[in-house]
Amino acid sequence: MDHYTHYRTGAPLADTKAPDGPIAERWDSRRFGAKLVNPANRRKHTVIVVGTGLAGGSAGATLAEQGYHVVQFCYQDSPRRAHSIAAQGGINAAKNYRNDGDSVQRLFYDTVKGGDFRARESNVHRLAQISVEIIDQCVAQGVPFAREYGGLLDTRSFGGVQVSRTFYARGQTGQQLLLGAYQALSRQIAAGNVELHPRTEMLDLIVIDGRARGIVARDLVTGEISTYVADAVVLASGGYGNVFYLSTNAMNSNATAIWRAHRRGAHFANPCFTQIHPTCIPRTGDHQSKLTLMSESLRNDGRIWVPRAKGDTRAPGDIPEAERDYYLERIYPSFGNLVPRDIASRAAKNVCDEGRGVGPGGQGVYLDFAGAIARMGRKAVEEKYGNLFEMYQRITAEDPYQVPMRIYPAVHYTMGGLWVDYDLQTTVPGLFAIGEANFSDHGANRLGASALMQGLADGYFVLPATINDYLARHPGQDPVDTGHPAVAAAVAETRDRLHRLVTVDGDRTADSFHRELGELMWEYCGMARTEEGLRKALDRIPQIREEFWRRIKVPGTEAEFNQSLERANRVVDYLELAELMCLDALHRAESCGGHFREESQTPEGEAARDDEEFSYAAAWEFTGTGTAPVLHKEDLVFEYVHPTQRSYA
Amino acid sequence: MRLTLRVWRRKDTRAPGAMKEYEVDGVTPDMSFLEMLDTLNERLTLEGEDPVAFDHDCREGICGACSLVINGDAHGPERTTACQLHMRSFRDGDTIDVEPWRAAAFPVVRDLVVDRSAFDRIIQAGGYVSVPTGAAPEAHATPVPKAAADLAFEHAECIGCGACVAACPNGSAMLFTSAKINHLNVLPQGAPERETRVLDMVGQMDAEGFGGCTLTGECATACPKGIPLTSIASMNKEWLRANRKVSRG
């Protein structure tokens, strides 16, 4: 069973799409070099977009505005419910409205450094360039960003940076940006340029003659399996944090679209790069179905601390100043409470491991606003964070204006995803991945307020420019014959899988397996990883998978509205993806960003990278369930930002 | 806690439905209402009965998916979404009725799941600013007074859950529709389409079969995001203004 770890290293992988030359000119140069499709010919091209979050919604709207025929899918009842809606804090842009020394160059540098030098420079620079256009676009759509009394846009600071470049709409920035994209998409639906399929879930990718030509999808209301064909397929289906069962992702966010694409030939890059967010509400019991994030923006004004002494059970108000340890301010004086997420999470874990955690089970640290309330007044705090305080109080029944919040790290985001080149095309020609679904811009750790920036950069600006090149090179493709054996095979496999799920008739629910897998992953592939732990997980996962197929119980049939079947089918994919995540974490015997291998740390306990060995993106090729994948390395070349040991002290 | 649930069960749009009673034990005050339903569903699954279907996703009160009428109130006794309602709002031994949104324009799909696509069609009728990607001017080209930005935000907070419709004795969608109209119409960016937006969206709302408004105010009371009842008055004013302007040419 251990031969899964005996992977082979295949041919290296390289991005061939980013042009050479000065980095600031590459995006212009690529857009000029890309072929265009004549506006009159665009309507003859069909593009499938899976997902309607920030990336998918903005891509669908923009491609339709350009004249393409877009066929778009979401599993929710409405495109407005995609999980981008829950992003709270803000969106970064190098506008330098504050005159505080910000620039495209600085956003680029901060992002590469924040990602611990594991992202591709060309992509990150383009992201920083486009960031300014995103704000313009969203303001024009009527996104109600926070403003100053003079009518201009307000900004705030986020972790890992020393400028104020985060634009926000109270604690609901994701909601407002998503509604902007949803409204732009709605306009195109009304115009007949987008054919929307809500409550429809992609279950497989159709690849013909080596090119992505369509998807297999299930109507979640009737259970009907259908095929949809196109000239290109865009996956904007989000990340895979739900592998861990408990995360801040939505309950139905899932990895099926990207995992099925991986099985059909799209390489999966850096699957072990997961982000554990430092400020989430601690779990309360076994019934817990998901975790709730408290925005990173709270760290602008809240101070994080634990008691100096172990096992101090006094109420926070009874602990005098001198007996508190504001550990982030102590260890990282120049960034203080605003260190990047990976560092803040690990520090919280360390103080809890020392026995200084607070709340039930000692799994929490305080996030205290007493100082901010005294300084700014309660009203100003309410204005900035009101909805977050309310949410906290609703969930915990504690008033954060009176007692400090209790927070603990939780799985939040996945930097890994489908490998894409500079054009955001995967290793399957005609298959593109945008937003959290790809691996491209955040390296081993994403900075706060950069997910919204990347999703919208990909959807509004990058993909609509680069997809032209692919479509222009494949003009007048023969329409896909729906009788093609590849189509029939994909449909048959999907039907078989669903049928098997409803007929095993075992004695365990999909949730029970999902929970078991999640606990295993949190234990061995979470905030701290060791070779021993990862090997244990790699031994255990195939056993859970085997047990799953023997004991799963899914009530009802596949030909009806069946939420149990939806869940079980997603767990099938988590049980494979989890194994790849552990293998990737095992093979990367260095620490970087959110990937912390205990064997590789500095004397101060920070992540110690090994640039000699691991300065590459690991792109894995699928070879079969439970059989060793093939590793393709994309070497990372740093011409502009020189990798150093990250320091936030 | 031990509770008795009476839940609306219905196989699909065509089948007749009925309330069915279930006992749920081992409920803790920290559970959300949906987590309480999860425990019921885990048990039903193992007993071979179809679990109760209900819409839910973010479980943070922002996606607007959850849609339960609890003891006769949309989203239940607290002013929040059902996913953010916790069992500490109930007492041991309580009997709780759980039903779907009830409105002619929201047909039941299964059990507690309804079809709210009418809301999407109202937005498609004009709930946007026509600004293709790439066409935007510099963000600071048009300052927006803070008061207008705040007012727009207050309305833009709507999560499209439909509680307003479920709470209204007429099944009216005035609060939902007015929230989007006010969000966009108070901003300078929304001004060029101010008249067509209100006329087209109200027209679509009527075409979907939502009821009229008799100002009972149940919608604003049920709204988990606190969209104010004055939103409807502002929309009516916009609608009258637009009609006058259009009729004058």
The gist of it:
The complex is a heterodimer of chains A (649) and B (249). Chain A has helices spanning 26-33, 39-42, 54-66, 104-114, 121-141, 173-190, 256-263, 327-331, 341-353, 370-376, 378-396, 451-473, 485-503, 510-525, 531-551, 563-587, 611-614; strands at 8-9, 46-50, 69-73, 91-92, 155-156, 166-167, 194-197, 200-208, 211-219, 225-229, 232-235, 268-269, 274-280, 303-307, 324-325, 365-368, 405-414, 417-418, 431-433, 616-621, 630-635. Chain A is α+β, with helices and mostly antiparallel strands and 649 residues long.
What is the element layout, followed by pairings?
The complex is a heterodimer of chains A (649) and B (249).
Chain A: E1 8-9, H1 26-33, H2 39-42, E2 46-50, H3 54-66, E3 69-73, E4 91-92, H4 104-114, H5 121-141, E5 155-156, E6 166-167, H6 173-190, E7 194-197, E8 200-208, E9 211-219, E10 225-229, E11 232-235, H7 256-263, E12 268-269, E13 274-280, E14 303-307, E15 324-325, H8 327-331, H9 341-353, E16 365-368, H10 370-376, H11 378-396, E17 405-414, E18 417-418, E19 431-433, H12 451-473, H13 485-503, H14 510-525, H15 531-551, H16 563-587, H17 611-614, E20 616-621, E21 630-635
Parallel strand pairs in A: 1-21, 2-3, 2-11, 3-7, 11-19
Antiparallel strand pairs in A: 4-6, 5-6, 8-9, 9-10, 12-18, 12-20, 13-17, 14-15, 14-16, 16-17, 20-21
Helix pairs in contact in A: 3-6, 3-12, 4-5, 5-12, 10-11, 14-15, 14-16, 15-16
Chain B: E1 3-9, E2 18-24, H1 33-47, E3 68-70, E4 73-74, E5 95-100, E6 108-110, E7 113-114, H2 117-124, H3 146-156, H4 163-167, H5 174-185, H6 194-207, H7 218-222, H8 230-248
Helix pairs in contact in B: 2-6, 3-5, 5-6, 5-8, 6-8
